[in-house]
Amino acid sequence: AQLPFFAVMLIDGHIEVHVNAGDGTSTRKLLIKSSSGTFSDGQEHSVIFVRNKRSLSVQVDEANPSDVKLGPLADTNLLNFSNFYIGGVPSIDAVEILKTTQSFYGCIKNLIFDMELLDFTAALRYSNVDMGSC
């Protein structure tokens, strides 16, 4: 059985969102392209996710939101965040779930999850990260 997961990646200047609610349906993928050509432009960008039952809405900066529909049982399944990774996934998990081993290179700050600002200095574990150097 597929475990539920949610992944956001910056690949070739575009934002990719992968989500599987663990309900036996295939992983849904959403590709968001910048109107200027790339999000890898050295500028700050905001990404907002809103889940409403079987729909996930993703808004980047001030652009119109993009939506992806989840499987029929998604409204009753919670996404499992027992393993919550930011910027990359351990290689064994990444290859199995996302078919990638590439980690994020750049700056992440002011990450809000479930209406709470995350404190990166309280991370349980990290590697190849320079904290507070955006």
Short account of what is shown:
This protein has 134 residues and is mostly beta strands.
Descriptive overview:
The chain has 134 residues and is mainly beta. The chain has one helix and eight strands. The protein has one helix spanning 91-97; strands at 5-11, 14-20, 28-32, 47-52, 55-60, 66-69, 112-113, 116-117. A three-stranded antiparallel sheet has the order 1-2-3, with no helix packed on it. The model has no long low-confidence stretch (mean pLDDT 78).
Identify the notable features of this structure and list them briefly:
mainly beta; 134 residues; globular; 3-stranded antiparallel beta sheet
Strand-helix topology:
Blueprint: E1 5-11, E2 14-20, E3 28-32, E4 47-52, E5 55-60, E6 66-69, H1 91-97, E7 112-113, E8 116-117
Antiparallel strand pairs: 1-2, 2-3, 4-5, 5-6, 7-8
Strand elements, count: 8
What is the strand arrangement across the widest sheet? 1-2-3
Q: What is the alpha-carbon Rg in Å?
A: 15 Å
Output mean pLDDT: 78
The secondary-structure class comes to mainly beta
What is the molecular shape?
globular
Unreliable runs: none
Distance between the termini: 39 Å
Profile the largest sheet.
3 strands, antiparallel
**Helix-strand string:** EEEEEEHEE
Number of helices: 1
What fraction of the residues are assigned to beta strands by DSSP? 25-35%
Helix percentage = under 10%
